[in-house]
Amino acid sequence: MTHAHIRIAPSILAADFTRLGEQIAECEAVGADWIHVDVMDGRFVPNITMGPLVVEAAHRATRLPLDVHLMIVEPDHLLDSFAQAGARRISVHWEACPNLDRTLRQIKALGCAAGVAINPHTPALMLSEILPLLDVVLVMTVNPGFGGQTFIEGTLAKIRQIRTMIGALPIDLEVDGGINVETAASVVEAGADVLVVGSALFSQHHSVAVGMERLKAAVANKKPV
User: Fold this and answer.
1) Which fold has domain 7-219?
2) Distance from first CA to last CA of the chain, Å, rounded?
């Protein structure tokens, strides 16, 4: 198969929070497809980031869909808050949800697309029973918890395996972690069609527009092998 459109989801974790609305608007202006929001609780991952208030502010700053990635334990009791704040897609971690089927059905009942994220050590096979419920599979290509990490090459085989598992199902295959002009082509060729990009876009060395242009050039005309 080929990808009609590789979507790019800037991760605002890497943005300048003193001008967050402005940076989100820049992303929209230069052709971003989604805005990715990394939510961390200091328990599932060793960092604390943002919650529903930031999602609500981001929702006011853009017309783009908000792609909310919950790196938190016990996400069920916060799903409604994130949906009310403006999340369009909510992904929870396979490793954090003992009743994953119920959690995904709750996300869908709130009117959001439902996603499952898996850590680098989690086998693709763990998704097999839940795939029919999914709108998004989010493959972590670094260990979650911090921005600016180095891409884990061993995750490419898992991306290829999940692309095969998805087959004709209408599921987005998203990758998150260490995605830049050097790694983007490899993950697209492996089967990814949504790229979460942080440090490569929000850099002190170039504008968001330049970062987006370089990234789009890196994946132009790429397709899965």
Assistant:
1) TIM Barrel (3.20.20)
2) 9
